[in-house]
Specification:
By secondary structure, the chain is of the alpha/beta class. The chain has a single domain (10-181), classed as Response regulator (Rossmann fold, 3-Layer(aba) Sandwich), CATH 3.40.50. It is built from 5 helices and 6 strands. Strands 1-3-2-4-5-6 form a 6-stranded mixed beta sheet, with helices on both faces. Helix 3 (98-108) links the parallel strand 4 (84-90) and strand 5 (113-118). Helix 2 packs parallel to helix 3.
């Protein structure tokens, strides 16, 4: 069991506040479900704990592996330590912003899909996020079905990218062995 003090920005939640998200009391943090090396992990980062709790609860009900942080720096630490499939992050946070996390994710693990969420969405901000490599951009208040669909689609895309890279590497290795095996040297 992974326990952190209540004041820690690293959290694994299950609770509260997105349209359609329910509102039960927070559960004791739980271990990741399934094998994190073979299942996409969703990392939720927002400086509003109620949003983090609600999204975590929603994604866990959907059977997804979830990590969560209540500030950008903690999110960055988790991004560095875990193989994250989708990063769902608030755009406007103190210190490390969602755009900072987007750039870091694309540097640390380019196959990580990033979805930015904000209450202050403009077309210009969305375009900037997409140019930086964001998978999608959603505005608050979030709708449960919409955010679940986006995250599932992003996980599917990320999974296909990883599989494609693996298959290309296997093919390159077979070609290399075939060339070495038929060499006259």
């Amino acid at each position: 069991m992974w326990n952190q003090p209540a004041h820690s920005p690293f959290r694994r939640f299950a609770a509260a506040h997105v349209d359609g998200g329910g509102g039960a009391a927070a559960e004791e943090p739980t271990e990741l479900r399934g094998d994190p090396e073979h299942a996409g992990i969703v990392l939720v980062v927002d400086d509003e704990p109620a949003i983090v709790e609600s999204l975590t609860k929603i994604f866990r009900r959907e059977g997804l592996n979830v990590l969560a942080a209540t500030d950008g720096n903690a999110g960055l630490d988790l991004l560095r330590k875990h193989r994250v499939g989708v990063l769902l992050t608030d755009l406007m946070m103190p210190q490390t912003t969602g755009m900072d996390l987007l750039r870091a994710a694309k540097t640390i693990a380019p196959e990580t899909e990033v979805v930015l969420m904000t209450a202050y969405g403009t077309v210009e901000t969305a375009v900037d996020a997409m140019k930086e490599g964001a998978y999608d951009f959603v505005t608050k208040p979030l709708k449960r079905a919409h955010v679940v669909r986006i995250v599932r689609n992003a996980l599917e895309k990320q999974s296909l990218l990883v599989e494609n890279r693996s298959l290309k590497a296997q093919l390159a290795e077979k070609r290399r062995r075939a060339i070495i095996g038929t060499s006259l040297a």
